Amino acid sequence: MQQDFRNYLKKFPDKKGYFGEYGGVYLEPELAAALEEITIAYKTIAHSAQFINELRRIRKEFQGRPTPVYHCQRLSKQLGTSQIYLKREDLNHTGAHKLNHCMGEALLAKFMGKKKLIAETGAGQHGVALATAAAYFGMECEIHMGAVDIKKQAPNVARMRLLGAKVIPVTAGLQSLKEAVDSAFMAYAKDYKEAIYCIGSVVGPHPFPMMVRDFQAVVGEEARAQFQEMTGYLPDAVVAAVGGGSNAMGIFAGFLNDPVELYGIEPLGRGSEIGEHAASLNYGEIGVMHGFKSIMLKTAEDEPAPVYSIASGLDYPSSGPEHAYLQSIGRVKYAGISDEEALQAFFDLSRQEGIIPAIESSHALAYAMKLARQEDKPGFILVNLSGRGDKDMDFILEKYGDRL
Ligand SMILES: *Cc1c(COP(=O)(O)O)cnc(C)c1O
Description:
Bound molecules: pyridoxal-5'-phosphate
């Protein structure tokens, strides 16, 4: 490997929040000042022994960490000589990796003396994880959600309410994720002395991409040690699905300085035309949206382009700035998987191993299965199984029930 990643996590992002040319803060001065307060608090508080010990305890006692690494023996045998392993984030409390950064963000809010957590949600996964964190800490929680999404995602809306969160319907524009982001930012701008904004992935303005990566890095740290203990080796390849990119950055963080190939997998959806996929790093260009600079899918008018994926957690028109950077220097390869390939992997893992994966995670698994079929390159492949698929069952039954 040409580059030295030994101190990478300390050196990136730089003081202004840039990973190479990507990242930064593109907001009006008042909000930028509020984020500067979070950056300073994060740098001091989150590196104190008290914070680290408290987060460790929460991860162990409340979240059930460490999550295991599991060897898929039956699935691997079907594919050839490569061996597929899973990092089981589906067994993290609430069934996905998202709680890792939500508990970190909420603990920081508590140390900062904040009383309220504000965020937007699309399909509701981030909203449920944050509402869980708010309930744990006894904080108020306000989730902004497009009115159209509220109708589509009734069970997640019910979960958020059960957990004590206030779900704010957003009726502007297309009444979906983009409008929810704007609404949540506006609410935060009015209330930043009492509240903290909690982003759902390694996206948004600095310090969020850094904070969320650092909170998710526990996945990579655990996985590296567990894999070595199980096999005596490092994996040859690590594969993760990329929506905003938090589960991928979490597992990659453990392996950046190792001779391990890293693959981020984007949703190719139904085709390569705009509106049929959400593969921003594969098809996008440099631009600014939602307060940060990255690679994104844009319309001719410089607005976020419409995106689509069978996996609602992956249909975001950009990816975190750190992914844009790691792609630009060639450290991570970003490939894609179609709806159909992800579905096949969803059925295969359920049938072969007794694990129903999230349809998001199925994208990473499908790519790992492709790698495993390449006879010239046998090896150990570690997949970040970012979540469980129970949430996808209604949709699968309705659309693909004939395949059961
Ligand atoms: C939200 C979600 C993702 C995508 O988010 P990232 O920030 O890219 O990790 C992937 N898998 C699951 C299960 C999710 O809920």
